[in-house]
Specification:
OB fold (Dihydrolipoamide Acetyltransferase, E2P), about 35% strand, alpha+beta, globular, single chain
């Protein structure tokens, strides 16, 4: 195989390897046009990779409680911003800032959390 074919092969292989990584980090599920916030009670904070998850019980205008799930960033990125596994304990009353799901389901892309003591932590994407 001549040098030009090797270079072309390497270029094509690099693109094919990178495509799944780019697709994995798509924000296509979330409405990027607006930031929404809701108050609720922490049900669970999953400090896991590749994405953390925050599950919050939120009461709607009719008094019905439902669990909403918010996808956060990776633990390494969030820890650099002051987050930790025990930062958002079960039962804590918080306000969640997020980009809502396009399909209207209960959840979204986690952008910020305001803790009971008033501290506001932003995600690795900023606060919105």
């Amino acid at each position: 195989m001549d040098i030009h074919r090797r270079i072309a092969f390497c270029g094509i292989a690099s693109v094919l390897v990178a495509c799944p990584v780019l697709a994995h980090h798509s924000t296509g599920l979330f409405d990027q046009s607006k930031l929404v916030s809701r108050m609720g009670t922490v049900r669970q904070f999953e400090w896991i990779n590749p994405h953390t998850w925050l599950h919050v019980d939120i009461t709607d205008e009719n008094g019905k409680v439902a669990t909403w799930s918010f996808e956060g960033g990776a633990t390494l990125g969030l820890s650099r911003l002051g987050w930790s596994a025990d930062l958002v304990p079960r039962g804590a009353k918080i306000t969640v800032g997020f980009r809502a799901m396009k399909d209207g389901s209960r959840g979204g892309q986690l952008m910020s959390v305001t803790l009971p003591d008033g501290r506001r932590l932003c995600s690795n994407l900023g606060c919105g």
